[in-house]
Amino acid sequence: AAMISFNDVSKCYPGGFEALKGVTLSIDQGELILFAGHSGAGKSTLLKLIAAIERPTSGSIIVGQQNIGTLRRSAIPYLRRNIGMIFQEQKILYDRNVFANVMLPLQVTGFDTRTSASRVRAALDKVGLLDKERADPITLSGGEKQRLCIARAVVHRPSLLIADEPTANLDSNYARDIMAVFESFNQVGVTVLISTHDRMLLDSTRHRIIELKQGKLVA
Ligand code: ADP
Ligand code: ADP
């Protein structure tokens, strides 16, 4: 069944730039999809629409049972509870250790300390960072920082994971590791959407690739 569907979606930013033009697509639960295209093609706009960070100018977007275009502002936190997001502008906090960074999303959920701690460790374990829980994030490599961001995005066990250029600035070995982490979540049923212009990743994947060009779906 479709988990996400776009029907003739366009997004025009204030100022008039049309970042997406008439996009229609359907994503099934449990898929792993790579969104490809040059810088400016509209990849990150598309991901932001799914998380209701941006709203469509026209067309409809259904995520789960909800219509993103008409979703009330007050309903957005409930939508996001089911989404893990990895966006470049999400900053690691350098005044606390790795464990505390991953704990952050749970602080608003009201879990008791023990439950939260076991969830944080489960998430760190899944990304291979359990031995670094006490580390100062400044000491992490680029790939480890990205894995920290992934742990933080999955700690509330979302069924949908959205990552915007997660391998940008990483060399190809690290990029492969990061892809393997996403694949491991996908294997337990998490739907994973990744934007990338990393040719190596795109050429080596066995997953569906959706290509955007100047705001339009081309393949
Ligand atoms: P990609 O992720 O493929 O690089 P984006 O979705 O980030 O593409 O951007 C698509 C186009 O929309 C770009 O030309 C960008 O400058 C423009 N854009 C993105 N965000 C905004 C914004 N908040 N306001 C105005 N224009 C934007
Ligand atoms: P616990 O022992 O706390 O139940 P699990 O062994 O079930 O932990 O692993 C849970 C971890 O799996 C989560 O902390 C999270 O990192 C990851 N995860 C994220 N989304 C899902 C999902 N939809 N289904 C299963 N595991 C998920």
Description:
- With 219 residues, the protein is α/β, with parallel strands linked by helices.
- It contains 7 helices and 10 strands.
- The chain has helices at 43-50, 76-80, 98-103, 113-126, 142-154, 172-187, 199-204, and strands at 2-12, 18-28, 32-36, 58-63, 66-67, 83-86, 160-164, 191-195, 208-213, 216-217.
- Strand 1 and strand 2 (18-28) form a beta hairpin.
- Helix 4 packs across helix 5 and helix 5 runs parallel beside helix 6.
- The longest helix is centred in the C-terminal third of the chain and has 16 residues, at 172-187.
- The model has no long low-confidence stretch (mean pLDDT 94).
- Residues 118-119, 122-123, 126, 154-155, 157-159, 185, 188-190 line the site of one adenosine-5'-diphosphate (ADP).
Keywords:
single chain; 219 residues; alpha/beta; six-stranded mixed beta sheet; four-stranded antiparallel beta sheet; 7 helices; 10 strands; 31% helix; binds adenosine-5'-diphosphate; ATP binding; cell division; cell membrane; transport
Q: Could you give a quick summary of the protein structure above?
A:
This protein is of the alpha/beta class and 219 residues long. Helix content is 31%, strand content 26%.
Compute the CA-based radius of gyration. 17 Å
- By DSSP (H or I, 4+ residues per run), the number of helices equals 7
Question: How much helical structure, as a percent, in the residues?
Answer: 25-40%
Q: H/E element string?
A: EEEHEEHEHHHEHEHEE
Order of strands across the biggest sheet?
Answer: 6-7-8-3-9-10
Bound molecules: adenosine-5'-diphosphate
**Distance, first to last CA:** 21 Å
Strands, count:
10
Strand-pairing-aware structural class: alpha/beta
**Mean pLDDT over the full residue set:** 94
Task: Specify the overall morphology.
Answer: globular
The description of the largest β-sheet is: 6 strands, mixed
Fraction in beta strands: 25-35%
Spans of at least 5 consecutive residues whose pLDDT stays below 50 are none
